[in-house]
Design a protein that fits this description.
4 domains, alpha+beta
Length: 432
């Protein structure tokens, strides 16, 4: 500040001494800069009050205490309760495992083991396996178990284990739910094998129940196979019965015709009758020739002429009788206009129709019998049966319940629920 004043005074003195001389632009610029630098700068006004600074409170806030209490209530309590129940109250459970498959006769005749599995898995036995899968878990199986075992004695509550035990006097729907929780059955579509696992509170009960399930499954497969066999054979058997009835009618009609016509075969009878008439007519012509020859040598009243005329009359009568029998027979004696040819033709036509019907009925009956035998062979080849690979086992150690795993699952679920609640709380708090 002092240096500036002195410089300003020096410049002013020089300016006053040279007042008469004009100022240069450089001097004017220097003078303006000195004046600007020499001007005092006023300080900013002081604040009226000091700003407040948030000082963190010591200790936990109320929301932190609520979160800790919720964590203890939602995580610690369920986990400890589950661990305590699993350690001291849950009863030991034993399992019995079995493996079996639904097979058919044709799939069992495969050339190699790969063909066995591919035919068993891709054939129609897969649908039977799914039927068996549903049957094991169905209400029907529970009813059969009740008829064979005392379910309360096998699956009843053991001590204070109220969670895994079967309650008393439960409806059938709840029994089915409990049975589905104690049985595990799966189907491997690639190999066609069903894996069964039954749990109970003793190894003997588990194996007995698993053995009974396998036996009932075999009965179901046998019933399905028998039902399919009967359905397939029923149609063929019905065709055989119809063909047999038709053949019987055709034979009876042919027998009635032979009884009325008194001919086994009208065509053969007509041939024999024609030959007989031809022979008689030939003999008649010969006698008439001899008669004419004798008349030229003898008189009318000679004994030889009378004998010859008598023979001629007998032959003519016999020929007429044969023509009447051959032409119309007993059935056409009342017909005035009937002829031999029309009678023979009608009988031959009737006989041909009856014989054709009989032959067709015989062929139909033979074809029906062949179809029935073929169907019986096909059904026998496709017959189902239950092939048991692993018989129900007897456990020596308890595998269920999974105490550590169940406790860990409860802990994870509780932590997840508590975390969702905490995040929801902070989300709502931040928005407000």
């Amino acid at each position: 500040m002092a240096d500036g004043s002195r410089m300003k005074q020096a410049v002013k003195t020089d300016s006053e001494s040279d007042v008469s001389s004009p100022k240069s632009p450089s001097l004017r610029l220097l003078q303006e800069l000195l004046e600007t630098r020499a001007t005092p700068v006023e300080p900013p006004p002081a604040p009226t009050h000091e700003p407040q600074i948030d000082v963190p409170e010591r200790g936990l806030r109320f929301r932190h205490k609520v979160l800790i209490a919720a964590c203890a209530l939602m995580v610690a309590v369920p986990t400890v309760a589950t661990g305590t129940y699993m350690a001291f109250f849950a009863a030991d459970q034993y399992h019995s495992a079995a493996s079996f498959s639904v097979r058919s006769m044709d799939s069992a005749q495969a050339s190699d083991i790969l063909g066995v599995f591919t035919q068993a898995s891709t054939g129609s036995t897969a649908s039977d396996s799914y039927v068996l899968l549903d049957f094991i878990r169905s209400e029907k199986m529970v009813q059969r178990l009740e008829s064979q075992f005392d379910l309360n004695a096998i699956f009843g509550r053991r001590g204070l284990d109220f969670f895994y035990g079967l309650g008393e006097d439960l409806p059938i729907e709840e029994k089915v739910d409990y049975w589905q929780s104690m049985v595990d059955v799966s189907f491997d579509h690639a190999s066609g094998i069903l894996n069964l696992e039954v749990r109970a509170f003793t190894p003997e009960d588990a194996r007995a129940v698993a053995d009974f399930v396998v036996q009932e499954s075999e009965k179901v497969i046998n019933d399905l196979s028998l039902s399919a066999r009967n359905e397939v054979l029923a149609a063929s058997q019905q065709e055989v019965e119809l063909a047999e009835e038709r053949l019987s009618r055709a034979r009876a009609a042919l027998q009635d015709f032979r009884a009325v016509s008194q001919e086994a075969d009208p065509l053969e009878g007509a041939k024999l009758a024609a030959q007989l008439i031809a022979t008689l007519e030939q003999r008649l012509v010969q006698l008439q020739t001899e008669l004419q020859t004798a008349l030229n040598q003898m008189g009318e009243d000679t004994p030889r002429i009378r004998v010859m005329r008598s023979e001629i009359q007998s032959l003519e009568a016999q020929i007429e009788a044969e023509k009447q029998r051959f032409g119309s027979g007993p059935a056409a004696k009342g017909s005035r206009n009937g002829s031999a040819s029309s009678g023979v033709a009608s009988r031959i036509q009737r006989y041909d129709a009856l014989e054709t019907e009989r032959e067709f009925a015989e062929r139909t009956y033979t074809s029906a019998l062949t179809s029935l035998e073929r169907a019986r062979m096909d059904v026998s080849g496709r017959q189902r049966y239950l092939a048991v690979f692993i018989d129900p086992t007897l456990s020596e150690l308890s595998q269920y319940p999974s105490r550590i795993w169940n406790t860990l699952l409860v802990f994870i679920a509780s932590v997840f629920a508590w975390s969702l609640g905490a995040m929801a709380y902070y989300n709502i708090r931040d928005r407000n």
